[in-house]
Sequence to fold (655 residues):
Amino acid sequence: MKKLIGLLLVLIVLYGALITMLPPRAIGQNNFNLARRVGQYGIISLGAGVLIVSGGIDLSIGSFIGLSATVLAVGIQRKGWSPATGIAAVLGLGAVVGWIHGMLVTKAKLQPFVVTLCGLFIYRGLARWYGDDSNAGLGSEHETFRRAFSKYEFAGLPVEFWYLMGAVVVFGVLLHRSTYGRYLFAIGSNELAARYSGIRVDRYKIFAYMLCSLTAAFFSIMFLADSNSVQPSSTGSLIELYAIAGAVLGGCSLRGGEGSVAGIVLGTAILFVLMTTVFVAGVSDKLEYTAIGLTLLVGAMLDEFLRRRGTAVRKA
Amino acid sequence: MHAPRPISVSFSAIITCLALAMSGGCNRGGDDKIHVAFVTNNPHAFWTLAERGCEKAAKDFNVQVEFRRPAQNSPKDQQDIVDKLLLMGIQGIAVSPNDGKNQADYYNEIAAKVPLITQDSDLPPGSKRRCYLGTDNVGAGKAAGQMVKEILPDGGQVVILVGSLDVQNAVERRQGVLDELGGKAGATGPQLGKHELLTTITDGGKADECKRKVEDFLVKYTGDPQKLCFVGLWAYNPHMALEAIKTAKLEGKVKVVGFDEDEPTLAGIRAGLIHGTVVQSPFEFGYEAIRILTGLVKKDESVLPPGGVLYIPFKVIKKDEVDAFEKRLNELRNPPKAA
Fold:
């Protein structure tokens, strides 16, 4: 709980700094833009976060988003699929890819890092091959699809934000209110102990990989609806880092067994508010990433410092 | 403790088989054909038309062409590819150097072994490349600047969008825009005649980052949107700017001019939301490069352009030409299959 309050305070400070730099009439638009980004990236951070809680990692998220977005755009644009067929196809693809990751990690006993690093290369190549290295988009057609996954607004907020709220409910119940969630935390904390206490570890881990790839597939649907243009060679590249950063910033430990849905959403929000703040503050393009990295590092150090002090005080 | 497992042997065997199966697509063809290569500087869609040009030239001149795109925008990856091509017995190479200044020594060594020409981006003066062919990027930038003047004749504010400023074509195009607006070579701004350059936004070659930054720029912008124009120097920049403008509900007010022929850019021009785009002719890059290389391999020096530079003309596409241009583009992209 303390952790969440800390994250919320950081978010409020950053956001406060951001709006003082903006003309008052622009604040509404700024909130709208941020809600869209947090909506889109929050969903993949949730997928990545659940996996991290279980002690896994997925480095192929970005490449898989590239492949999934390419399949969707090429399918609809060049092969004449209906958007519904395309959506079903990429969600199916996400489930299959996640299942393969899970099987390789649990049954073939390969390290998650290795499996998904190979995936990173494989999916990027497949995207370029399937898209024939040509950009793909929907032109000015399929307005309904684009509205459903990006352009639609409800209560002044973009539809992506509402999808995230839906995902928060689903993931919240799953992680914090179900046996599945308890087992995931147990597996992430001590896999061997979980196995000896009769938890079907493999099954739960495979499901976590599937959830992660499914959220990536869903992201690619929102991505195409939003930007309407997919570059097979670059779309999605490095997005896994945003997803993992959002989750870790929100309190997921890369050692597994720690994390919360609320934390992940706050972590994602901090990341994107920070990026906007750095841009609006006029930090030179050249130093932008440095500013973001340093801020995150200082945050992590502060968090560790407070945690240790807390432990020391309790011990004393 | 573990004995070597037989599984690792069979695993390597599987990998080898897979690799061999995949390389089956690369056919070595007629053995006595001239064998040349075209190497790009990144895998972007821009090069697809160049590949079509190479394919047509391969047929017309009866040569075999290896078309290779480095997976990253990286000089190291590019040099690895060139080294492998030489091992394959390539007789001539057309390359778009990733970092001409620092790759000059490397490519001079290559030029001593096989005929080497540069395309799209050149090596510094004094290099041993036989010739350069590509777009006059300063001229193309000026054409974009000309469009800014047309759409904001009484002056206004300009924001330049580009992936990165460490690529020569980006630097030259940007300079062309500045020169045209400022009315003199080497203009630096921010005041350029009646126009003012507010900033140059880079996005590391990532389209989604370009959109995010333009959205943030528009949130912060306090001037008159009717007097604001984005100039997108790389292919995705103009239509990503347009998407961001739509998010801010300023379409039709904020102006956009751009480069290259991405489909959403052409759609934006058709809808009257993007004023125009400067297009290069990558198909001709491919075709001309293979024509010149074939000549050089045959020791025919007459194929070399005078002065060692062949500018492939660029075109400016606005609303009235966009349909005809797109039709021609589709014909080039999907040539009828020969029986």
